[in-house]
């Protein structure tokens, strides 16, 4: 698994405002959206394209278009929804699937409560959206589920990651193969790699509960 921390002053600036506890939900949503578009630019560096001929006002030339099958964007409910518009702004023709996963706050284990994905993902490039790569359990389970349906390569996009989560994903996804039997190509793209997880499984310094900060607290 490859991890890419996007090193850019605009990314760092937007992330700083997201971290600030004084940032309200509307501003948080807008900045998360902008930040995802910047991360998506880096995350789609390997998106598959094919050549196409076009005519300019001056001459003919060859350009590129997204290859088929089109990439699949998979936000993990609920907080990943806050990243969807920022991603599809850059990949408007991508298809979108949904994964509902929830973390038990006691055991920190992830379980799946909803799946809305094509059964066959053979050869599909997938972009999984989840703002906080904390323990890594949710994203590792999501990658595994996509791989079981034949997807690959899989790129996970998160705003923040904890080192413990990256290590766990590396460990859990070690040896996982794509449909052709070769090692599954998994990439993680984040705006920052933070210090650690605290006892409650929150990223430190982090930005708090991403779902609550995007959408408010649901009792
Ligand atoms: N989920 C969050 O929303 N925040 C964290 O810090 C960790 C997991």
UniProtKB/TrEMBL annotation:
This is Uracil phosphoribosyltransferase. Residues 5-217 form the Phosphoribosyltransferase domain. Its EC number is 2.4.2.9. Allosterically activated by GTP. It comes from the Bacteria. Pathway: Pyrimidine metabolism; UMP biosynthesis via salvage pathway; UMP from uracil: step 1/1. GO terms for biological process: UMP salvage; uracil salvage. Binds 1 Mg(2+) ion per subunit. The magnesium is bound as Mg-PRPP. Belongs to the UPRTase family. InterPro entries: PRTase-like, PRTase_dom, Upp_B, UPRT, UPRTase/APRTase. GO terms for molecular function: GTP binding; magnesium ion binding; uracil phosphoribosyltransferase activity. It catalyses: UMP + diphosphate = 5-phospho-alpha-D-ribose 1-diphosphate + uracil. Uracil binds at residues 203, 208-210. Its cofactor is Mg(2+). GO terms for cellular component: cytoplasm. 5-phospho-alpha-D-ribose 1-diphosphate binds at residues 78, 103, 130-138, 209. Keywords: Allosteric enzyme, Glycosyltransferase, GTP-binding, Magnesium, Nucleotide-binding, Transferase.
């Amino acid at each position: 698994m490859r991890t890419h921390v996007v090193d850019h002053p605009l990314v760092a600036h937007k992330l700083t405002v997201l971290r600030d506890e004084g940032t309200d939900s509307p501003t948080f949503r807008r900045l998360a959206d902008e930040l995802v578009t910047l991360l998506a630019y880096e995350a789609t560096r390997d998106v598959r394209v094919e050549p196409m001929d076009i005519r300019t006002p001056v001459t003919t030339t060859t350009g590129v278009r997204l290859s088929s099958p089109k990439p699949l964007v998979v936000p993990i409910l609920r907080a990943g929804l806050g990243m969807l518009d920022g991603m599809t702004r850059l990949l408007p023709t991508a298809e979108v699937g949904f994964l509902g996963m929830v973390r038990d706050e006691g055991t920190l284990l992830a379980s799946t409560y909803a799946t809305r994905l094509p059964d066959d993902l053979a050869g599909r490039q997938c972009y999984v959206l989840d703002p906080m790569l904390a323990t890594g359990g949710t994203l590792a389970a999501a990658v595994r589920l996509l791989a079981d349906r034949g997807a690959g390569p899989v790129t996970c996009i998160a705003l923040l990651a904890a080192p413990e989560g990256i290590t766990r994903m590396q460990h859990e996804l070690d040896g996982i193969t794509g449909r052709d039997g070769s090692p599954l190509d998994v990439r993680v793209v984040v705006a920052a790699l933070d210090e650690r997880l605290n006892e409650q499984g929150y990223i430190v310094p982090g930005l708090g509960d991403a779902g609550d900060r995007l959408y408010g607290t649901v009792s």
